[in-house]
Amino acid sequence: MSRTFVGWPAFPRAAEHATRDEQLRANVRRATHTIRAKRDALVAERPDWEHLRDAAAALKDDVLAHLDTYLEQLEERVTAAGGTVHWAADAAEANRIVTALVRETGETEIVKVKSMLTEEIGLDSALEEAGISARETDLAATIVQLGDDLPSHVVVPALHRNRTEIRDIFVREMGKHGRPAPDGLTDDPAELAEAARLHLREKFLQAKVAVSGANFMVAETGTLCVVESEGNGRMCLTLADTLISVVGIEKVVPTWRDLEIYLQMLARSATGERMAPYTTTWTGVTDGDGPRAFHLVLVDNGRTRALADPVGRQALRCIRCGACMNICPVYERTGGHAYGSVYPGPIGAILNPLLKGPDDPQTASLPYASTLCGACNDVCPVRIRFTDVLLELRSDIAEGDARVKHPAEKAALKAVEQVMAHSPLWNAAVKAAGKAGVLLPPHRKLPGPLHGWTDSRALPDIPKESFRTWWKRTDGGTKDGDTE
């Protein structure tokens, strides 16, 4: 059974475990520092980079403000080009639609283009339950699948693995799913890539059905676009008889010309390349060229929830470049799995709570998985203000009625609120705290259920005298040698 993030522990627990893994931390640090150095060099080549960011953000905001109009236009154009459009409100409905479409073809093994959305909805597991094997074709996604692993980065899903680990996975697992790894395979990158190429070519040539996502959808023409580095996606998109594209509703752009902005930014931000080696576009079906049937499954799965948040909706601008992960000091130390989602790093810390709501314990912890250093704000090509959204989400959790709060915590905070609103009570509480401070143990840990607060915080000294008492005693600070 394909692994999923269902039941993953909350970020604090997962991060505590991940930060103890020295090999993981070394792998992640090496990869993220390499990518971001390449990104910085190529961004510096563009004197208009900040103008591109402005344009990309403004265009995305226009799309989000008129999303219904653009989606209706997209459906009309895709249908006119010979495709079929399906609408899915959530993951379960999307999985039912895709499973039914594959079953109609009679095929039991399909190929897939790397897609974060299909990971988000758990499509591979749903297909597996229906007796359908979905084989990943992206090199990194293949490594993750063969290793019975989970993705840890939106661009490089196997970023947490080093070459030796990948070689071991290929040798151990490839033969169970098709062509085995060559004898004597080493961890040389060229040899690993060739082993994957030979293994996957059988899949491309045999598969009649392919599933993809899309980086962008053009409302004006009904065109979909996939950006990749290897060409494996293009093999899926052109060789299969039936193509099923599963795409989030926020991926639409108004016109063909609008692609120009994002294609100049995506590869630079994602992998430090001027342009991705493979940019594939397709519009419906064409006789004698490509798939004979095309289905587009448009998925909401919480996106309209995020759209309704006036601050959080900017997360839907995201073009999945991963630049925020590559710069994040928290991600660098924990890796992606600690976030418990296919979307890790700063974008995961804001997007997952927006998509799922505040009542899931794993999701509710994510807005705190940040130092608020703002580095993610600086590198985001579509100018998402991560820190603004993180602070809003923290406020929602702290001041709202999220069910993740412990009943005792809610009661305690309510009691503090009432005491602080009543001046005589507050003054009495402050005096009592000063007297109680001397009774605290030397290691300054709070007793009983309160210890959780001091396990990760240094409890400050509690003064015996409050500021108000001192002020009154000294007539506003003018006694005892003080001067105005």
TrEMBL record:
The keyword Cell wall biogenesis/degradation does not apply. Residues 308-338 form the 4Fe-4S ferredoxin-type domain. Keywords: 4Fe-4S, Electron transport, Iron, Iron-sulfur, Metal-binding, Repeat, Transport. The keyword Disulfide bond does not apply. SUPFAM superfamilies: 4Fe-4S ferredoxins (SSF54862), NagB/RpiA/CoA transferase-like (SSF100950). It comes from the Bacteria. This is LutB/LldF family L-lactate oxidation iron-sulfur protein. It comes from Streptomyces gamaensis.
